[in-house]
Specification:
The chain has 271 residues and is of the alpha/beta class. The chain contains 8 helices and 10 strands.
Length: 271
Amino acid sequence: MIATALSIAGSDPSGGAGIQADLKAFSACGVYGMTALTALTAQNTLGVTAIEVLSPAFVRAQIDAVFDDVRVNAVKVGMIANAQIARTVVAALGQHTTTIPVVVDPVMVAKGGARLLEDEAVRVVREALVPRATVLTPNLPEAAALLGCTTATTRDEMVTQATQLLELGCQAVLLKGGHLEGPTCPDLLLTANDLVWYVTPRIATENTHGTGCTLSASLAAELAKGRLLPQAVQAATDYVSGAVAHADSLQIGNGHGPTHHFHQLWRSSND
């Protein structure tokens, strides 16, 4: 029986981030993917030009439709868009996900700089959605926005901010350190009982569109398959590191291109 995962997030018509990236990551990790859309975006590798937010009632209808019929082994929550949808997602998770892992990726700003989360929604995410998370997966600017502080610039500051995020009520924090300077990208997994660093080489590429979506989706996929959290994080970070390392072979778009979700499955003449 194949494991399944549901992504609750926005769309990216260029295919590198959002729902589209999540489905690719689920599939590449051997998991059957499902989706509930929160918003439609007009975006590409150069940036976001328009956003249409769906109604909270329709977001809830999509989530209920999946859970009413299909077994769900894990949930990934990405772009929320506004406070009303955030509250709707929290209510749906409270009804449907009491025994399955929930990965929350607090998407706030697109790679090109467009704001994807309203100020009031940040408060609802912090106070209501974060406590529903099995794992919270912010990057450093997102962590700072949730905490109302400056962005971490050292590993020690990452530990401090991850501790503060854990105190918001989630079970674990995977704080992504890709914004730090240096030859490596250190990610920090913090739980009530453990602290683990996952360090990968920094890849010299501009094609990193959707890395956050891809990491959280692959982590949800690994948890859906029954992996314990430390092993699931290791598998997800290894997968994303490989996807970034092979990103240049795709040659998609004129800006920040996507990672190569299927680098383990496709053969390219450029690899």
